[in-house]
Hints:
By secondary structure, this protein is an alpha/beta fold. It has helices at about 65-70, 75-80, 85-95, 105-120, 135-140, 150-155, 170-185; strands at about 20-25, 35-45, 50-55, 100-105, 130-135.
Amino acid sequence: xxxxxxxxxxxxxxxxxxxxxxxxxxxxxxxxxxxxxxxxxxxxxxxxxxxxxxxxxxxxxxxxxxxxxxxxxxxxxxxxxxxxxxxxxxxxxxxxxxxxxxxxxxxxxxxxxxxxxxxxxxxxxxxxxxxxxxxxxxxxxxxxxxxxxxxxxxxxxxxxxxxxxxxxxxxxxxxxxxxxxxxxxxxxxxx
Length: 191
């Protein structure tokens, strides 16, 4: 059970305005050196993608081969990308104060973003203040019978696609369709 006070109950109400978020990283845990590699977001207004944001992030360290294999991103792809400070400045400028974030396995993305904000500002108590909904949790609550709740399992189950690209913006756009499918099952809202 996620005890993060920013986490909203995904079955409390259907959302029609939100920001779908996905990140790519150099590993699974920023506390052991993994870094942000890409941030992708889609602003959804009245159930339509109104605006998108995508930035690569120069991790200032070599990209592990397993991550290059997964994402296709190489060291040369991020060589001229903004560093963490520049990327987070752009991220915070794009995100509106009242935006609700939706992400698949949202605690993972929020952990990376929280630690990035702390690193950039030097304030160890600072965090991303936005409320969020986790579609992984939503899928688990709606489908106890399912063994797999990964993005790829859900996009296949809902006929959205056969695979995820492991690139932040394209994954955020697929996850937005996953949220609408889950929302339809939970609330009967399919627009």
